[in-house]
Amino acid sequence: MITCVLLCMITAPLLAEDWNPNDDTFDPNLQSVVIGDRSWIGDPSPFVHSESSRTGYTYVNATDYEGMDPALQVSLMVPLQPGETVPAAGGMLMMTPNQAKALVKAIEGKIAEGSTDKQQRVPIATSIQGPDWGLKSKSQAETKFIELENKTKDKVDTYRFSINASKLLGAIKHSLKKLEFPSEQ
């Protein structure tokens, strides 16, 4: 027992050190990673919250809360700076399996399209009424991005992902499998 605890204490930090934000593959076996001075659940996909210029990370999971239909949750978490008491901005998309599949298709479509200045916004349907989520691609200095936007009456929060966004796609697809085949997980 003590050997197992010691082995876990030694190998967990080593696995976290191997995590690379530029790796575009999702690893469902990764329980958490340490990035800077914070621990993040799972294999997060990095993004930049455009309005604050801060790097945040995703957490994607399948939910089956009592009284609600099974859903897929995508959390967009922007860390607090030392001394702050109010978060910069985070977001959450709660989606039915069909809505999550539509998001996957939209992201794959934005990845596949060539550079464009039209930046057409694709609306993203969610289970929660009120938020106005959308997806668009954008180019800046010959670099292409995928952006999730959340429009409210007061402001727009934009979460910018690298063009591959494959780690996020992998997390969504993995969580969808958990919703569709819960007994196999």
A few lines on this structure:
With 185 residues, the protein is α+β, with helices and mostly antiparallel strands.
What is the element layout, followed by pairings?
Elements: H1 2-18, E1 32-35, E2 38-41, E3 46-49, E4 54-63, E5 71-77, E6 91-95, H2 97-112, E7 122-124, E8 132-140, E9 143-151, E10 156-162, H3 166-180
Antiparallel strand pairs: 1-2, 3-4, 3-10, 4-5, 5-6, 7-8, 8-9, 9-10
Explain the overall architecture:
Strand 4 (54-63) and strand 5 form a beta hairpin. Residues 1-16 have low confidence and may be disordered. The chain has helices spanning 2-18, 97-112, 166-180; strands spanning 32-35, 38-41, 46-49, 54-63, 71-77, 91-95, 122-124, 132-140, 143-151, 156-162. The protein is globular. It is of the alpha+beta class.
Total number of helical segments?
A: 3
Overall structural class, as computed from helix and strand content, comes to alpha+beta
What series of H and E elements makes up the topology? Answer: HEEEEEEHEEEEH
- Our Rg estimate from Cα atoms comes to 17 Å
Instruction: Classify the beta-strand content into a percent band.
Output: 25-35%
Q: What is the chains' assembly state?
A: single chain
Distance between the termini: 26 Å
Average pLDDT works out at 81
Q: What spatial order of strands do you see in the largest sheet? A: 6-5-4-3-10-9-8-7
Poorly predicted tracts of residues? 1-16
Instruction: State the shape.
Output: globular
How many β-strand runs?
Answer: 10
Helix content: 25-40%
Q: What's the main sheet like?
A: 8 strands, antiparallel
Signal peptide: 1-16
Keywords: Signal
